[in-house]
Amino acid sequence: MRLDANIRKTGLIGHPVSHSKSPEMINAAYQKQGLPYIYLAYDVAPEDLKQAVEGMRALGFRGWNVTVPHKVTVMDHLDEVEESARLIGAVNTVMVEEGRLIGINTDGAGYLRSLVTETGIDPAEQQVVLIGAGGAARAVGYALARAGVQRITVVNRTETRAQELAARLKTWTETEGVGLDQAGEKLQGASLLVQTTSVGMYPDTEACPVDPTFLHEGLLVSDLIYHPRDTRLMREARTRGARVHGGLGMLLHQGALAYRRWTGQEAPTETMREILEEALK
Ligand code: ATR
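Above: the input record for the complex with 2'-monophosphoadenosine-5'-diphosphate. Below: its predicted structure, written as tokens.
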């Protein structure tokens, strides 16, 4: 791949962005497939967001990823927001089509692809307990609900937020929203526990979002955290005979789906996984 005048520009805007593994992951994929694309990370302060987006349009970017804190506010500066992003209420990817900026969300679909390909489970058979009710929970909850899971119980520290998310998902599946005090009871009949909060994330790696004694061997425990790769929740689950699924695959597949939208090519996910595994060691 030559860094000449015809290189197609993609990237990431966020604040901060220096920790992001996406530039390594996506550039390795471009190189692997010999595509004339480049991906760079840009630290954009909230007050500069509008100018940054207009600048990227003017400079002829093909598309870019959007991360915290711009995932919601970026929508104000786009020409169109696809249904998935609108329903999740956040954009993680922008694609430029004939000068028009289109907002997409690949987080939910990326999560689902990771879950299904890495564990082999059938979403339609799952009774889900979703821990957390923030942005990540909205994306994952939407994807699971659309995939036809039997039921989603949202469990959250702030019960009203759990109820709000449950209400958003009830178009597609049976739902309820409860406080953390009901986690034990709700986990008894569950087959899939999805953990979307930051509890257990580096550096607080001994934290566990639910009492480990609630975990049982009938559960698949899916934790969105990827740093550390193995969270305390996952370790506790394994000890009790439950299966586990970590967050690296979601990071990989949300990127792979954005890549496909920008390039029209299926992303080289094995190469991308190797890069991420190395970067997250
Ligand atoms: P994100 O977009 O990453 O999901 P968010 O929108 O800030 O981030 O949501 C964070 C989620 O983690 C929320 O569900 C939050 O619970 P509250 O709604 O009660 O705030 C949850 N969370 C964060 N820290 C937590 C903690 N120490 N204990 C329990 N839940 C926590």
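Notes for the reader.
Residues 132-137, 156-158, 161, 196-199 surround 2'-monophosphoadenosine-5'-diphosphate (CB under 6 Å).
The radius of gyration is 19 Å.
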